[in-house]
Every structure is written in C-alpha cells, then in structure tokens.
Amino acid sequence: MTQSRTEASRTVLEAAAAKADLSTRGAEVIRLSENELWRLPRGVVARITRAGQQAAARREIAITRWLAERDVPAVVPLALQQPVYVGERAVTFWQELPPHRQGRTADLAPLLRGLHGLPIPAFEIGELDPFVRIETRLSQARSLPDDDRAWLLARLAELQAAWANLPTGHPRCIVHGDAWRGNVAVIANRKPILMDFERASVGQPEWDLTSTAGTLDTFGSISRGEYLAFCRAYGYDVRTWDGYPVLLGTRELRQVSIAVLLSEGNPVVAEQARYRIACVRGQRGPRPWEWEAVP
What we know:
Helix content is 43%, strand content 14%. The longest helix has 19 residues, at 244-262. α3 (105-116) packs parallel to α7 (224-234). The chain starts with a helix and ends in a 15-residue tail after the last helix. A hairpin with a 3-residue loop joins β1 and β2. The chain is globular. The protein is of the alpha+beta class. The chain has nine helices and ten strands.
C-alpha cells in the first residue's frame, strides 16, 4: 500500500526529531504544501523541505540567526545543530510564534525597507534565482497538457533572456525572495515579523517589491489606495521602473508553476492552474485576473 503524504511526512519528522533529541508526541500537521510544517510539543515548529533543498535550508538557518544578532524582527530557529538531514530532505526547527494574525500590505513595507538597508552578510548566501524550480515543476507535472507545457517553457526561456538584460535599478542588497503579506506575522503589542527565508539571497530589491505590485496588478486583491500607501511607506513604486514587466512576468510564471505543482489530485487547485495558464497565454483579457490563492 502506498504511504499517504501525511504518513510519509511524519516518518521524516520522527527521524529528524530523534536526531535533534526532540519529542514528536502529539505532533500536528500545520500545512502540507511545497514545504511541510508540523507543530511539536513545547512550542516547536518543524519545517520539512522537498528533496534536494538542503542548501536552501542551510541558508535559511544562517540568515535568520544573522538577523537575530541584529535585532531584526524575524522568525527564530532553535539553538541546535541544524538543518537535520533525512535522506535527501532537510528539516529545520523553529520557535513557535504566539497567537498572531497574517500581516497586511502596510505591515510589509517597513520590514522590507529595513531588510534592504542591511549590509550584505559576510557569509555566502547565494545569488537571487527568480527561476528556481520553475522548469522542474512544469516538466514533471503529469497533468499539464503538452501544448501548455511547451508554451510555458518557451515563456520561461523568454523571461530568462530578458532578465539577463534588465535595466539598472536600485543597488543590490539582501532580499527576502518571497516577500508577500502572507510571510508577515503580527503579534499583539509587538512589531510585525518576517517569516520564510528559504529564498533569501543577494539580488535586486525590486524583486521583493514586485510581489506586492503583483497583488494589485495580477491578483487584484488589494486596492490601489493600499498599494500607494505601501509605496509611500517603502519610498518607491517599482511599477515606474522599466524592468518591472519582466519581474512581474517572472512572478506570474512562478505562481503558475506552483499551482501546477499543487494541482495533482486536487480538482480545485487544478481549475485555478488552468485559469492561470489561460491568463498568461492571453486568453482571459487584461490584468487584473483576480487569481485565487492556492493552499
């Protein structure tokens, strides 16, 4: 009998927790998405990567420890030797946050302004790769029609070529890599904090800003007033930059590939994936396309 995803994830969790001398008694799934999150006893959260993401896990631990030394409001990894490796998968352990709400667009701008103003770390954190895993997701998706796959891979090549010739923007700095309001937590009587540094690296700060701009232009899920308030708080509107269309197109292709990845066995996500593909292929009119979030 084939193991369910939950069972397979628990097997990895228990092996990693045993190596870290942590209990899994009563462990509960928080989310099984591209990464798998579990709540453990004593205020611990475990994060399990997909296979082959060991380097990203090492980077995430190094960066968050570096940020903690500088009192930057961010999630805090446990003080133990990590990541822990189980086969090709990496597991990291974090202090669980107190009760909190998801951040709003207004909460994100000052966090990004502060992050982008930091010096680049002395240790190696890698270069921003906006195209990471897109080709793999599209190539391996069993349910993706061949015609759509060919078009999306051609679009990927087009964007990669355009990215290599981006106009000059703001100075390169440390970037979050996946800077959207869902990666901000707001705890009562405390400053908002940033989460999920899996894609943190050195690169164009415009990449982080494009995520919020796309929330307006692609998803249509924030108002123009909210977006302009974000720009005022950060001090810049990325949509005025000549390179913005390339960054937006890349963000959209990433969002398509994520929906394709998560659509296997999920009819609701599969329908959203088909809709996103039709949008980027020019079959659903102009933006905003009002894309819906996928789990």
